[in-house]
Amino acid sequence: MDHFQYRDGKLHAEGVALDALAQAVGTPFYCYSTATLERHYKVFEEAIAGLNAGICYAIKANSNIAVLATLGRLGAGADVVSGGEMERALAAGIAADKIVFSGVGKTGDELHRALAAGVTHINVESFPELDILSAAAEATGRTANVAIRINPDVDAKTHEKISTGRQEDKFGIDLALARDAYARAAELPGLNVCGVAMHIGSQLTDLTPYREAYSRMAEFVGVLRADGFDITHLDMGGGLGITYGDEVAPTPEAYGTMVAETVGNLGCRLTFEPGRMISGNAGILVTRVIFVKEGLAKRFCIVDGAMNDLIRPTLYSAHHEIVPVSEPENDVELLEMDVVGPICESGDFIAKDRALPPLGSGDLLAVRTAGAYGAVMASTYNTRPLAPEVLVDGEDYAVIRRRFTVQDMLDLETLPPWLDSGTGAR
Ligand code: LLP
Question: How many structural domains does the chain have?
């Protein structure tokens, strides 16, 4: 359930009409709904209510500080994967002791800063990282709470590019090597080895791989405890799938029940890292039709949003529902078309072979389920300014990231002295 609905023939974000918003901020733009963010957070929270657990929202999904502050207000912590993400979480008012630092390639500087800031746990993914973390702990005079991310070698049955729990994926430490990693960590100064972490992939629409992976995790906790480790903490990762089109995603309740069945009796504090499940359906990308081009083989609806704004369709063959902002008549005859951007690549499309009502220049479209991995993955390819982000709350809205300008981009660049006519080009 989301709060993007038609009212009086116009698509609204909560109480705000999207055609008026498009007039005010220009297109394309991202629009997020506070009520939807809050609802999804609470649904997940209820699903894990019976467990001793906390939520560290995976901010990579949507890291605008206004989105983070909205979730932070509800009690969310943050899962961060870079020094930059950590600064965002802190800037949004999420306390350091609710921040988990994950990631396969953290640098010494990032770990140093994370320890100095006081993050709660570091999820370590390799032997060399243990050494770097120990050195950072010594240098900062802090003790690092460590969970080691294990790779359970389970196929999450999701898209190839977002599958992370198989041996051929770069993530985590192979389960067969992980016992040695704990032994190594125990020898190093500055580390408090107290947890096990796991994340097998994203957009999982089947609970079976989770069950398999979490069961392996539970078994491994037994091994570690027999080795004398006091394992008090499990990081369950994220990855719960959502509905983009006609897929059927497991309910958070079913997920919570499965977690209870697999690791619920271990007496550990659990951390969950949902990203997409919280923000995915809480956002849309609003784009305007530039014009429609009738080809011999295809009809192309060329819009002002493109792969630089939303890369998911071309990168993951992802399906995003598209609806006109003006509600179509019930009996309107649908036409098949590709919805494409202006970028000079055939890979620049938002949807292919989509049935939509007849469209013309100036019409507005909403690309749904764009609140996760949308704006955060945008680029300025073709010198297209990053689209603004708008947060709606009831009847109110605020621009939470302004549109870049071409001048912003030019200002980042410099001519070297030998090309700068002002300083005497050769
Ligand atoms: N925890 C870790 C360690 C992760 O790597 C991820 C996502 C999450 C949590 C959150 O997963 P979620 O609940 O959002 O599925 N750009 C891709 C998704 C990449 C996911 C990367 N890791 C997409 O657009 O589908």
Answer: 2
pLDDT tens readout for residues 244-278: 999 999 999 999 999 999 999 999 999 999 999 99
User: What are the beta bridge partners of residue 392?
Assistant: 33, 397
Q: Which of 256, 272, 288 is the last residue of a domain?
A: 272
CB-side exposure of 335: number of CA atoms within 13 Å? 15
Same domain? For 289 and 220 the reply is no
Domain span including residue 203 = 103-272
What 8-state DSSP symbol labels residue 125? -
Mind listing the pLDDT tens digit for each residue in 267-276? Answer: 999 999 999 9
Work out which ligand 1 atom sits closest to the CA atom of 241: 15
Q: Are the C-beta atoms of 20 and 286 separated by less than 8 Å? A: no
The answer to whether position 54 is within a domain reads: no
Atom of ligand 1 nearest to the CA of 123: 3
- Does residue 87 lie in a domain region? no
216 lines ligand 1 (CB under 6 A): no
The residue written with tokens 């019976």 in the block is 50
pLDDT confidence of residue 1: 77
- The CB of 201 under 6 Å from ligand 1? The reply is no
238 C-alpha to ligand 1 centroid (Å): 7
Is 56 a residue of the active site?
Answer: no
Q: Are residues 178 and 111 in the same domain?
A: yes
312 CB near ligand 1 (under 6 Å): yes
- 333 shares a domain with 199: no
Name the pTM for this structure: 0.97
